[in-house]
Write a structure and sequence with these properties.
alpha/beta; Glutamine Phosphoribosylpyrophosphate, subunit 1, domain 1; 2 domains; 24 helices
């Protein structure tokens, strides 16, 4: 896994711009700690930072294909093509010769053989650029589910691109300007496909390519979810889900470096870990290595709340024992979570203050600890979106709401817990009205609903649940995948997401909702498909979100930070705050009520400082 960047300019000679590319490339050293490279052509410059996972010796980049001393194609590539061995064999049969054992070289030759249609043949997670010196055209490619990020910034005579906004913002032509729409996107808790918050910058949509020519840019969709009749009965469906999962996990265990799984003790991560253990045993390899996050004293003193009925620890240990995993708990304390260096590292990884506060910091610290022993990890991300795991999938009021279901759940969650300080409660009322966050959310919801594919004759609850599923697979999961990618790559760890394999997503998307809940519970198909490899206590466990510290000391540290911010007359976030409400909250709000709002304000302030953001609202 790697970081990529580049610059196309048709009006200047880029062979003299090594220093600019090097600066862009340097922003992504954490994504690729093993090596870096720059390739310059007259009108294209490519940069690459490498995390070596496959073909450690031969996979250096940027990579080219040459013939008779002439460069035919150059790439800077990030990701993994899980079917690269099959593709390589097919290409060899068609006369292609390879000099490395890397999947990067397979991508190059696949494009030379099949042109832009080669995307239909790829199975994996990827974001990469291909430059053809013969036609002087660039092609940007992003995987179907948007697992790997890719941003671009059109210029007067070409474009800039990078795995992360920071790579683009390192170029003198790009500026960190955020207007009303960008701020609305930032505050709306809705990740709009293609939107990058910064003015002039875009994120290439999942399942899309972008071709750059002298005449301009052309975006093309090569994949999208389609509505199809599901003709398999329940037993066949369960069996096929399992067959897919077995194949997916086996493919994603391919690596030339130490590999592990993320294990929370929930159904999703437990299924991945158990199937990985099974595949490794069948291949004659050692036990699967697994990791879980915990907080000092939390398992012993756990208090159930509205979101989490049980601690993760006992369930993770039960699964690890069941499959004989080499398991380790990463135990964090409040000092770890509140350390300024750690919080700043998370914001730098995200490029935006859109995270989950302590949840992002703990994830970053978990990944940093894992990286000391493994380079690749398999995760259970996106199973909830595919199989219907979230509680609001099963709440009639949430399903009926004319809004994104998770926004309804967030609002109702605050009310149900009696929270006196909402997530945005400390922001100036005039600011929220000016950017019209509610109107923005409604507009994005209508756009998302309009994209849902329809099945002839489908109506009522089945039709609505297709909409709900599509909203999650095209909007909600993007937030989680971006979070996972940024936190992991900031530590040089590659995280793979088996449940995002497009074959599984397509198949389960079209299974009727009644089949997905056939046993009266969430994620019925996944539970049935993997029950034989799970202990009963794990298979029957109710969905529990990513863990959060229950230490009251965490909120009190935030209170102190917020008090110091109020005393700083030069704090850039002051113009965005309701200073009276913030002072009152610091003085009187209970710690649990203050946490989320304080995290939002503190992250906004750090972002405005560190990124020298210009707000045009």
């Amino acid at each position: 896994m790697c970081g990529i960047t580049g610059w196309v300019s048709y009006d200047r000679d880029l062979t003299t711009e090594h220093a600019v590319l090097a600066a862009m490339n340097a922003t992504m050293t954490d994504r690729g700690p093993d090596a870096g490279g720059v390739w310059l052509d007259t009108h294209a410059a490519l940069g690459h930072r490498r995390l070596a996972v496959i073909d450690l010796e031969g996979g250096a980049q940027p990579m080219t294909v040459t013939h008779d001393g002439r460069t035919l194609l150059a790439t800077t590539y990030s990701g993994e093509i899980y079917n690269y061995r099959e593709l390589r064999a097919e290409l060899v049969a068609r006369g292609h010769a390879f000099t490395t054992a890397s999947d990067t070289e397979v991508a190059l030759h696949a494009y030379l053989e099949w042109g832009e249609d080669f995307t239909s043949r790829l199975n994996g997670m990827y974001a990469f650029a291909l430059w053809d010196p013969r036609s002087e055209e660039l092609l940007l490619v992003r995987d179907r589910m948007g697992i790997k990020p890719l941003y671009y910034y059109p210029t007067a005579d070409g474009l800039l691109f990078g795995s992360e906004p920071k790579a683009i913002l390192a170029h003198p032509l790009a500026r960190a300007v955020v207007d009303r729409e960008g701020l609305a996107e930032l505050l709306a808790f809705v990740k709009t496909p293609g939107h990058a918050v910064y003015r002039g910058m875009h994120e290439l949509r999942p399942g899309h390519t972008l071709r750059v020519r002298r005449g301009g840019l052309t975006e093309r969709r090569y994949w999208a979810l389609e509505a199809k009749e599901h003709n398999d009965d329940l037993d066949t469906t369960i069996r096929h889900v399992r067959e897919l999962l077995d194949d997916i996990v086996e493919r994603q265990l391919i690596a030339d470096v130490p590999l592990c799984t993320l294990l929370s003790g929930g159904l999703d991560s437990s299924a991945v870990t158990a199937l990985a253990a099974k595949a490794l045993r069948a291949a004659g390899h050692g036990p699967v290595r697994s990791f879980a996050v915990d907080f000092v004293g939390q398992t012993e003193n756990f208090r159930p709340d509205a979101l989490r009925a049980t601690p993760d620890g006992p369930y993770a240990h039960a699964l690890a024992e069941h499959v004989a995993a080499d398991h380790r708990d990463i135990v964090l304390d409040t000092a770890d979570l509140t350390h300024r260096e750690h919080r700043d590292a998370v914001l730098l990884a995200r490029d935006l203050p859109i995270g989950l506060g302590e949840g992002d910091t703990s994830l970053y610290l978990l990944f940093r600890a894992i990286r000391e022993q493994s380079t690749v990890a398999l995760s259970g991300e996106s199973a909830d979106e595919i199989f219907g795991g979230y509680s609001w999938f099963h709440d009639p009021a949430a399903v009926a709401a004319d809004s994104f279901p998770w926004l309804w759940a967030i609002e109702r969650g605050f009310a149900a817990e009696g929270t006196t300080v909402g997530r945005d409660a400390l922001l100036a009322p005039g600011l929220l009205g000016k950017v019209d966050v509610v109107g923005y959310q409604q507009a994005r919801y209508r756009e998302a609903i309009a994209e849902v594919p329809r099945l002839a004759g489908e109506s009522g609850h089945e039709r609505r649940m297709r909409e709900i599923s599509h909203l999650h697979l095209t909007r909600f999961v993007q937030t989680l995948l971006d979070r996972k990618d940024r936190a992991s790559m900031a530590t040089g760890l590659e995280v793979r997401v088996p449940f995002c394999d497009h074959r599984l997503v397509e198949y389960v998307f079209n299974a009727p909702w009644a089949m997905k809940t056939f046993d009266g519970r969430e994620k019925s198909l996944l539970r049935a498909a993997t029950r034989d490899v799970l202990p009963d206590v794990v298979a029957e466990r109710v969905k529990s979100p990513y863990p959060s510290t229950q230490d009251p000391g965490y909120a009190e540290v935030l209170r102190g930070d917020l008090r110091a911010l109020l005393a700083d007359g030069d704090a850039p976030v002051r113009d965005l705050l309701d200073l009276g409400a913030t002072a009152d909250a610091v003085a009187t709000a209970p710690g649990p009520d203050l946490r989320n709002a304080a995290e939002v304000v503190l992250a906004l302030d750090t972002w405005l400082r560190n990124y020298d953001v210009a707000l045009d609202i």
